[in-house]
Amino acid sequence: MTSINHRSANDIMTLSRLGSFYQSKLSFLRSFIREFKDWDFSTDLFELDENGYGTAVYSVKKNDRIYSLVCFANELDSRDRSDRVIATKWDAAFVLHDGIPSEEDIIRLKKNVPKQEVGRVSYKELTLSRANKSVRIFEHTVEALASGNQPDKELISDVGYLYRTTAVYGSGKFGLADRYRIKDRSEICGPFRLEMMLVYLVRQFTFDQVNHIAKSRNPSNAVKLSHDIARNLGIGNSTGLGMAPFIVNHPTLLHNWIYSREEALKQIRSIQKVDIEDFKKFKECFEKSKLNIDTWKTDSEYQTKKIQRLIKDLDSFEKNYLLNIKFQENLFWNKLYLWVAEHLSEEGTEYIVSMLMEPYDKIVDPLIQNMSSDEDLFFDIPGERSVVDLINIINKNYSNILNLDFNSNEETTNFWFISKNKEEPRVANRYEENGSTLEQPLAIARDISALLKRLNECQNTETVAEFLMDNNDLRHVVRRCFIIEKFPYSEIQDNIIGANLVPIDMLRLKLSFFGAQKFDPRSDKWLRINMYQGAPLINELKTANDTWIYNRL
Amino acid sequence: MRTSSEIETISKRATRAAGFPWGIAEEIGKNIKTLELLSLTGIENLNLYLRSVKGKQVHGPKEICEDNSLESAAYCPFYTGSALLDSANKVEEISNLTFHSINFPILLIPFLNRLSEKIGKKILLRIDDVDFLLNLNKFISASKNFEGMVIESAKIVRIEVLENENSFSEKIWDELYDLSSETFVEETDRLKENAAGAGLADND
User: What does pTM read for this prediction?
Assistant: First the structure.
């Protein structure tokens, strides 16, 4: 029997590979929709004026658990509309409340939620967000509906959303409930579930709002947004550098995400006799998904090259493999994967890896239960371990980065810091900007190299505890060594302060696990994406299938 | 109310800003969160300590001994606490340790609480005349009301690893056991004959 192993962390955890990841059945948007099917939905309050400004409350219920999305839509001067995190006003602000909000809660939230970071919410609130209208299509859609027509499908497809969020906060930020208050809730069992819930409900609000404004504008002639068009509208999102430190600061979580993907691939490649129906499902998803690629619009040269590379890869896969092979049950997926890995770029390979999961709910679903993590459980350093052990761990797990020369400006060009203006992560050139003495502890490759050098000079020291008494400046990476020993996919095996750093590769990794599509980098430091485009509408959830992500208008 | 997440983040950053390494700052973020959850005065002690040492050199132990002292300074609770936690086995082995003068010793408590969990034994911490019983990182009890307690410096800090012992007598245990045995059912001879192991030759 062929023994198939996980792909090695050294191969997978490079920035270029991670920056080539795509959404899959493991992605949180999709697993959320699967999990959310049997929830009941109701509109509890919808008090908007003729311009669509006011308050709305939606609630979702499963068994005895209720969550409510409280929406505040406000008039916004176009000069104040900004996607940047430094903005202070938005078209709408949202909060997910734990339970049904009382009138007092709504009054309290109305004072605070529109202020976002400078407001204050309570432990009764779970996630917080804000969003701006897409100027390109919001008014067009309202006007079309008010005059009895549907909006232009091409324009809708191009933009893909009525609103774009610029942040979704959770886990104790600005007074929100700490994660430990909700982490054991049985009805929400994947990572970022409540963030996904908020965004999904916000999407519903955007439909209700355009319908409401159109009806107010022309009560006798207005029509409602067609379900087909609504289904193909998601929620946009502008995402900046905040996500990059997150994946470095949550090593066991990162491992669990990547491990789940690698374990799914391993199990699929290991299937001895592949059912022809599963092959048909793979082909069907592959063909449908390919049609979507031409809707991925971007002005980014970087992303355009990646898309072109992907198209070339997928054409090659189709012409040179898929159309020529004779289906044989025996280890069919493994043979397919080996061909893909040999002939396609990272972009194409990771796309096919995502596709391979499509027929396999039975393999993917159990893995989703393990995609959360409690970092605190692995925080303590085992000081009793020997210095020799620590040296061996580094040599075994960090071989990709040990040859880099951190005495060169090339490998140390950038530093990560927290902006004083907005308390958000930023990256800057160490040799051109001030502030590198306040660098965040994210230069893991550089610090691991320094640790190995220091350890080699202290071979007479027996234990890690003794080593740390004189070397606490490297404590943060000593901790990481004992984490990677247990969790091999917990580190990016690349230098994230080098001159060649492309920060959006880190964002893409995280966003692919979210299930985002249509990556549209606006610079090397932020990008726009789309979430839930093609997803079933709330009244369709119970009967929807899981391949909605490949739907198109 | 400040959330645990905010307390951890701000404590970590402030510790780094006062001149401590990131690895120590990470420890302090977790520790202050714990102190505040236990209603101990973590934030206040931390704020006062960091302001008193910002930009100054502070000292931890260079080895863990039964009797520990520095020539002309008090120990830093962060370096002392992390050294004790890292050297958990040695602390358990020595079992009775004394430190002569530690600044802001309340900040030592979460390190020792984690140490207690790591070695699976209770720890008695005596800060001058106040006793704290640290129980496997689950709860803390003290000989004085610790609400609002700030201790800028302790002359003597004693750490005693307690052997695991019952807090009840055998007599009380027997009484409770008798009560629990009322859930048992008497077996008949027929049932005994069919029970596991019955009927087999022991040497087959």
Answer: 0.93
Cα separation, A227 vs A211, in Å, equals: 12
Is residue A74 in a domain? yes
Q: Could you tell me the pLDDT band of residue A553, with boundaries at 50, 70 and 90?
A: low
At B46 the pLDDT is 98
**Residue B201 confidence (pLDDT) above 80:** no
Task: Please name the residue of chain A whose CA is at the shortest distance from the CA of residue B14.
Answer: A438
Q: Are B156 and B128 in contact (CB under 8 A)?
A: yes
Residue B126 vs residues A235, B31, B39, B96: alpha-carbon distances, Å: 57, 19, 19, 11
Q: What DSSP string runs through A141-207?
A: HHHHHHTT-PPPHHHHHHH-EEEEEEEEE-TTGGGPPPHHHHTT-TT--STTHHHHHHHHHHHHHHH
The answer to whether A492 touches A276, Cβ cutoff 8 Å, is: no
| Contact yes or no for B23 and A123 at CB 8 A | no
Separation CA B123–CA B113 (nearest Å): 8
Q: In which residue are the tokens 């690895």 written?
A: B23
Residue contact A479–B26, C-beta within 8 A: yes
Q: Which of A40-44, A424-428, B200-204 has the highest mean pLDDT?
A: A40-44
Tell if the CB–CB gap between B62 and A476 is shorter than 8 Å: no
Query: Does residue B203 surpass a pLDDT of 90?
Result: no
**Cross-chain Cβ contact A383/B85 below 8 Å:** yes
CA dihedral A57, A62, A64, A66 (to 10 degrees): -20
CA–CA gap between residue A165 and residue A95 (Å, rounded): 13
Alpha carbon distance A481, A490 (integer Å): 10
- Would A115 be classed as within a structural domain? yes
Nearest CA to A429 among A439, A441, A444, A442?
A: A439
CA A87 to chain centre: 22
Sheet holding B153-161, edge to edge: B67-69, B96-103, B153-161, B123-127, B130-135, B139-142
- Considering CB atoms only, which of A122, A383, A474 is closest to B23? A474
Residues A71 and A85 sit within 8 Å (Cβ to Cβ): no
Please tell me the predicted confidence (pLDDT) of residue B135: 92
pLDDT tens per residue, range A127-154: 999 999 998 899 999 999 999 999 999 9
Asked if A179 is an interface residue toward chain B (Cβ–Cβ < 8 A), one would say yes
User: Cβ A470–B5 below 8 Å, yes or no?
Assistant: no
**For residue A263, how many other CB atoms are within 10 A of its CB?**
17
Instruction: Give the tokens for residue A373.
Output: 């993590």
How many beta-carbon pairs under 8 angstroms link A with B?
Answer: 82
CA distances from B168 to A466, B139, B177 (A): 39, 19, 13
Q: How many domains does chain A have?
A: 1
Parallel/antiparallel/unpaired status of strands A161-169 and A234-239: parallel
Complex-level ipTM: 0.91
Distance (Å, rounded) from C-alpha A411 to C-alpha A444? 12
Q: What is the DSSP letter of A273?
A: B
Spatial CA neighbour of A74 closest among A57, A93, A102: A93
Distance CA A24, CA A354 (A): 5
Whether A477 and chain B come into contact, CB under 8 Å, resolves to yes
In a domain, A136, yes or no: yes
Partners of B139 in the beta sheet? B135
All residues at 6 or more sequence positions from B80 whose CB lies less than 8 Å from its CB, including other chains: B60, B61, B99, B102, B108, B111
Domain extent, residue A141, equals 37-240
Q: Is A338 inside a domain boundary?
A: no
Q: Is the pLDDT of residue A411 over 90?
A: yes
In degrees and rounded to multiples of 5, residue B124 shows phi and psi of -100, 120
Residue type, B32: I
pLDDT tens digits for A485-533?
999 999 999 999 999 998 888 999 999 999 998 888 888 888 889 999 9
